[in-house]
Amino acid sequence: MNHWLLKSEPGTFSIDDLAAAPRRSTAWDGVRNYQARNTLRDSMKKGDTAFFYHSSCEIPGIAGIVRIVKQGYPDKSAFDPKDAHYDPESDESDPRWYTVDVQLVRKLKRLITLDELRKHAHKELSDFVVLRRGNRLSVTPVSKAEWQFVLSLE
DNA sequence: GCCAACGTTGGC
DNA sequence: GCCAACGTTGGC
Predict the structure, then answer these.
(1) Which residue is nearest to nucleotide C3 (CA to C1')?
(2) Strands A3-8 and A139-142: what pairing?
(3) What is the pLDDT of residues A58-112, one digit of tens each?
(4) Helices and strands (H, E) in chain A, number of each type
(5) Which nucleotide is nearest to A113 (CA to C1')?
(6) Are A145 and A124 spatial neighbours (Cβ–Cβ below 8 Å)?
(7) Which nucleotide is nearest to A137 (CA to C1')?
(8) Could you tell me the sign of the dihedral formed by the alpha carbons of A128, A120, A56, A44, in that order?
(9) At A96, phi and psi to the nearest 5?
(10) A134 — alpha (psi -120 to 50), left (phi > 0) or beta?
(11) By the 8 A CB rule, do A28 and A62 touch?
């Protein structure tokens, strides 16, 4: 069972939006980056768990835990001209973009802030991808040790 | 294949 | 709103 970190802007879709969604589940669609696409399509497996990270907001940080409930399948939002993430070059017969379905496992008891994570950037979290300078990937792997350490902060 | 221009991300 | 980082695009 692997672990991941998924970024979302809470102004667009927050952990509370997920909690309020039917079956507390949603398609993680709209990702338009090839490296993240590859992860969504090839690496994330049903049953894997991921941190739900709030980015581009007042207090960035890890807000909750989600589980992959449906693994890689074509992202239909790319075919919809009205969708903000429409990609005319993604063909239905050869989809360019992929998504997974995630379901909320639970919100963390408190937000584990980016500030707090950074305090461990030179030790337990020295390889934590989300702390890397200039990291812009919206889907990143989390090692088992990192996963457990972050939860120990809770 | 190189690289400048441009667009997006995301913390501050 | 600013700006650094970095992915993508397109001319050559």
Answers:
(1) A134
(2) antiparallel
(3) 999 999 999 999 999 999 989 888 888 888 788 888 899 999 999 999 999 999 9
(4) 4, 6
(5) B11
(6) yes
(7) B9
(8) positive
(9) -90, -30
(10) left
(11) no
- Rounded distance between C-alpha atoms, residue A49 and residue A2, angstroms: 7
Where on strand C do bases come within 7 A of a protein Cβ? 4-8
- Asked if strand C contacts A143 at the CB level, meaning under 7 A, the answer is no
Whole-number distance in Å between A99 CA and C7 C1' = 20
In order of start, what are the domains of chain A with their CATH numbers? 3-137 (3.10.590.10)
Give the distance, in angstroms, between residue A74 CA and nucleotide C12 C1'.
36
- What residues approach strand B to within 7 A at the CB? A 7, 9, 32, 55-57, 60, 114-115, 130, 135-138
pTM of the model: 0.93
